[in-house]
Design goal:
Blueprint (H helix, E strand, L loop, with lengths): L23 E6 L4 E7 L3 H20 L2 H17 L1 H12 L3 H27 L2 E3 L7 E9 L2 E5 L7 H12 L3 E5 L5 H12 L8 E3 L4 H8 L5 E5 L2 H12 L5 E4 L4 E5 L5 H13 L9 E7 L3 H13 L17 H16 L3 E4 L15 E4 L6 H4 L6 E7 L2 H9 L8 E3 L3 H10 L6 E2 L20 E2 L4 H6 L2 E9 L16 H13 L3 H8 L2
Parallel strand pairs: 5-6, 5-8, 6-7, 8-9, 10-11, 10-15, 11-14, 13-14, 15-16
Antiparallel strand pairs: 1-2, 3-4, 4-18, 9-17, 12-13
Helix pairs in contact: 1-7, 2-4, 3-4, 3-6, 4-5, 9-10
Bound molecules: nicotinamide-adenine-dinucleotide.
The site of nicotinamide-adenine-dinucleotide (NAD) has 31 residues, from helix 7 and helix 8.
Length: 522
């Protein structure tokens, strides 16, 4: 087991809490740059041992009827409600976000998803009698079976919900789980493990393995039946490549460069407030943050003025009474600085913000609004993942759509207009897995809406019926019903099989013929 530095610093001594005599990973509070904890950096053997524990738990868990699994997960939610303060404190201390952000976007969303699948999920997995097509004398049924152990790998920006959503879905579908939380936010991962370990008679259905990239790769290669990865495109491609060795299926929730389109007829007050919240909540570290705005030239000046005024009013700090906290991960701050430097060099103008908060330790970055930007700049093309809002003027909606789609990403997006029909048309034209009309980001909070990306933003969906079916294998069973002594096509082949086949082909598939026959027969 190696000592690992994760950008906050690492290395060192014994993990007293765990009693593990190993080097590990230091966890740092990004608001103050102080070390607040330490977790072990687990080896591939330890990952495999966790997968084996989860596999042993799979038999009894998957054998439970859906209702009983739902009862258990609801009991876990009760445990969550008893530990709200501890969970919020843990999330806040290792991400730098505000308590309210942790509460609403992480805990509330997890509870809502549990509620949704507890109430609605059973019918998504019920066996379905389907048409048996050509073989009308048989009965065709589609079953959905749990897969086994699911490996979940999560990022640092929403360490609770992005672990919980796939865990909840996989468990409701009858699987057990091994979670590898981000090495930047492993204490939240550990808190998730405690929630499940401390509830009822299935303590092993969720295992948590801490560590950095190699621990994640070990999980992908450990023989799990599915991997659900949430993180960057670059790592997502590596996960998919590793999974290809064993043909392990993957669900990939990756990055975004979400566009916002402001039409000439938009409610500019609402749009400006929405842009500012969408770009700066969680310090812009949301896969669905507003990362670029295209504004109709007729309303551009007024929109920009409102955005700048709203941005200057943002209260940045620790705890209640603030709008945003600090950033989380030092290398991410460097990416933000690199994008800003590239934009400045190519002619962009900073209207407010532009750098780290002066004189303050920790990862404090000013909310920054930029104009005079174009698609030659990294800030309009690559994921910035920080509190930066670049705004570009466009001639019309066609140009806005062309620019919005000029991206390898396609996660979320938004369209702002007072005309509902125009909103619907533009939503269809955007290449993205999700669109909000006159809002931003919040579609993730609706568990009945499947969430995920197109293009390089990912594969597969969480939430909705799709999100549950990601974690089952469809099994098709065709039942013979009448027990005839033979089927018409079995050996020895009847003499007239070929002419009979030709007649059947024509009768069954020639267009209009079926209707004519039915007419003749009255
Ligand atoms: P990351 O890709 O650096 O790391 C994500 C996880 O992968 C971590 O747990 C990391 O330890 C692990 N990992 C690293 N190398 C690995 C490997 N070779 N094999 C297996 N696992 C490995 O991402 P991050 O910086 O933690 O998170 C930010 C990124 O996540 C952003 O791009 C953001 O857009 C994306 N994200 C996407 C969604 C979504 O739902 N689409 C949600 C949140 C964040």
């Amino acid at each position: 087991m190696a000592s690992t530095s994760v950008g906050h610093g690492g290395g060192g001594a014994v993990d007293a809490a765990e009693g593990i005599d190993t080097a590990g990973i230091d966890v740092v509070d990004p608001r103050t740059n102080t070390t607040i904890g330490r977790v072990p950096d687990l080896s591939p053997e330890e990952v495999r041992a966790a997968v084996e524990r989860a596999r042993a738990a799979f038999g009894p868990w998957s054998a439970l009827p859906y209702r009983e699994r739902a009862e258990h997960v609801l009991a876990v939610r009760d445990g969550l409600l008893d530990r709200v303060d501890h969970l919020v404190d843990t999330i806040v201390s290792e991400t730098g976000k505000l308590p309210a952000e942790a509460l609403f976007t992480e805990l509330m969303t997890a509870c809502e998803t549990i509620q949704y699948y507890a109430r609605r999920g059973e019918r998504f997995l019920r066996p379905q009698r389907v048409s048996s097509g050509l073989m009308g004398h048989k009965r065709a049924v589609r079953y959905f079976e749990p897969m086994g152990v699911v490996g979940v790998i999560s990022p640092w920006n929403y360490p609770f919900i992005l672990g919980m959503t796939p865990i909840i879905s996989a468990l409701f579908a009858g699987n057990t789980v091994v979670l590898k939380p981000s090495e930047v936010t492993p204490l939240t991962g550990r808190a998730i493990g405690e929630l499940f370990a401390g509830t009822g008679s299935f303590p092993d259905i969720v295992q948590v393995v801490t560590g950095a990239g190699p621990t994640g790769e070990a999980l992908v290669r450990s023989g799990v039946q599915k991997v659900c990865f949430t993180g960057s495109v670059r790592t997502g491609k590596r996960v998919m490549a590793a999974a290809a060795d064993t043909l392990t299926p993957v669900l990939l929730e990756l990055g975004g460069k979400d566009p916002m389109i402001v039409c000439e007829d938009a409610d500019l007050d609402r749009a400006a407030r929405g842009a500012v919240w969408g770009a700066f909540q969680n310090s812009g570290q949301t896969c669905m943050s507003v990362e670029r705005v295209y504004v109709h030239e007729h309303v551009y000046d007024r929109f920009v003025a409102k955005v700048v005024a709203n941005t200057r009013a943002i209260r940045q700090g620790v705890g209640e009474g603030h709008d945003i906290g600090s950033m989380t991960f030092p290398p991410q701050v460097e990416i933000v600085e690199k994008h800003l430097a590239d934009a400045a060099e190519k002619g962009a103008t900073v209207l407010t913000g532009g750098g780290r908060v002066p004189g303050r330790d920790g990862l404090w970055f000013e909310p920054t609004v930029l104009v005079d930007v174009d698609h030659d700049m990294a800030i309009m093309r690559d994921e910035t993942f920080g509190p930066v809002l670049p705004i570009m003027k466009v001639r019309d909606e066609d140009e806005a759509i062309a620019l919005a789609n000029d991206s390898p990403y396609g996660l979320n997006s938004s369209v702002w207009t007072r005309d509902a029909a125009r909103g619907e048309v533009l939503a269809q034209r955007i290449e993205a897995g999700n669109v909000c009309v006159n809002d931003v980001i919040v579609s993730y909070g609706v568990p009945d809406l499947p969430f995920g990306g197109v293009k390089e933003s990912g594969l597969g969906r969480v939430h909705g019926p799709e999100g549950l079916r990601e974690f089952v294998a469809a099994k098709s069973v065709l039942y013979d019903r009448f027990g005839l002594s033979r089927e018409a096509w079995w050996f020895p082949a009847p003499k007239a099989l070929t002419p009979m086949g030709k007649r059947m082909l024509r009768l069954r598939y020639r267009r209009g013929l079926g209707a004519k026959l039915r007419g003749l027969l009255g």
